[in-house]
Queue: 2 jobs
Job 1
Amino acid sequence: MSEKYQVVNGNKIHENGDREQNDDASLKEMADCYRLILQNVGENPKREGLLKTPERAAKALLFFTKGYHQKISDVINGAIFTENHDEMVIVKDIEFFSMCEHHLVPFFGKVSIGYLPNNKILGLSKLARIVEVFSRRLQVQERMTKEIAEAVDEALKPLGVGIIVSASHMCMVSRGVQKINSKTLTSVMVGEFRTNQKTRDEFFRLARS
Ligand SMILES: Nc1nc2c(ncn2[C@@H]2O[C@H](COP(=O)(O)OP(=O)(O)OP(=O)(O)O)[C@@H](O)[C@H]2O)c(=O)[nH]1
């Protein structure tokens, strides 16, 4: 973070655009924005049912984007164990909810993660926690897939990593082109998963089963 900053509505804005968030100040600022949005869709933000909606919506958005404030090392919390296991480990169908950075509407689906250990294994829940860190942000599916792969690769230094993501994008389902049943599939293969056809095939077969 740069040394020079100004305080705007309780949040520090650095000269390079970085923002140090003060949660209370952000909540208030965001709630004010939602109040304006309500007015602009033709609503009365003062009617009873909407009185607390701006604060609720602000809290919800902070929850949907909580991944910005999480660090992979904190999430893994040291749960890397030495183990002489050299077969593929797969955790599949990890549900995620994310938000499309183009329209700020949800996209959601499942992530399957596989890796080939190099004498180190990761606590299983940590794979799902890594998915949370990168999905709880404004995203595009391709970048989220890559970031998950890189995080697993960096944490474990395995012989290879494979990630498959299948998702429905509300920006394509409920608006725009309105293709209700469309699914987007993305994958990233690292190390043996990229270079060894057999490893790759085994991963895709097991992830599909
Ligand atoms: N590659 C990729 N595209 C995405 C993702 N999420 C949303 N998009 C696309 O982002 C594009 C934005 O296109 P624009 O033409 O700028 O916006 P738009 O007029 O709202 O587009 P339409 O959705 O076609 O109505 C759309 O094609 C979306 O489907 C994603 O995760 N990955």
Job 2
Amino acid sequence: MSTKLPKDMRYTQAIEARLQRLLERSQHDEELREDLDWLIGKYVRLERKLDKISRISDRLQGEVLELNRQLRQAVTTDHLTGLLNRRGAVERLEAEASRAGRGDLGFCVLLLDLDHFKRINDTYGHDAGDLFLEKIAECLRTCLRQYDSSGRWGGEEFLVLLPGTNLQQAQLVADKLLQAIRQLRVPLSQQKNAPDLHCTLSIGIARFNAGDNLNQVLACADQALYLAKNQGRDQAQTFCPQQTQQALEALRHHPCTS
Ligand SMILES: Nc1nc2c(ncn2[C@@H]2O[C@H](COP(=O)(O)OP(=O)(O)OP(=O)(O)O)[C@@H](O)[C@H]2O)c(=O)[nH]1
């Protein structure tokens, strides 16, 4: 009769010591030995069940994490363009603002608005407009650096976040975007003589420095965008406190806008 416990089992030290003692004592006690074998058999089956449950629980935990990741992605992604949606863009802005607060990095925000986009919808239909928005998103992704972010801010309005960038550098990025969109041609169909969709952009630029209020910076970018629209579109305007205010004031008193 063996006095060794099954080897492939995982016992706690206390259980192992007691079982081992009982096994040795049961050598001359048939009844005790039978009870002990029964208990060890139960223990083996229980341990296998626990093992199975723990593997299932590991797998479920992995699946829950993956579902959470997919859910997070779904609520922060714009389904048409695949860019961040407004909520995703705000989260990215807030993260960048708090990062900037810890150092002196700062970043620039660009608000982009397509010019006379309504004409594309009105002339070629909403699906053509959607197609054009998708191509705009592709164009943004191609033009920007890996660590820049872009999101769909509203219907035909986009936001670009340029970390560690000053206003001069942001102006260069804006020029690159203006040119890329100006040159973008989106064929409406494969048919010969089908018209190409095209459009221009207006951009407002503002800079966030450590300690700034994010909403105020966004409002500044919006004012600069308003200026870009009113000064002829297809251009970028940078928010500079005095000049922008003066220009907006002048627009307010202009006979065409007052
Ligand atoms: N196809 C499509 N159109 C959209 C979507 N969201 C907004 N729009 C359209 O975008 C157009 C915006 O029109 P407006 O606000 O007048 O702006 P605009 O024509 O671009 O003129 P400006 O901004 O002044 O240059 C409207 O026709 C909206 O219907 C969308 O998801 N898909």
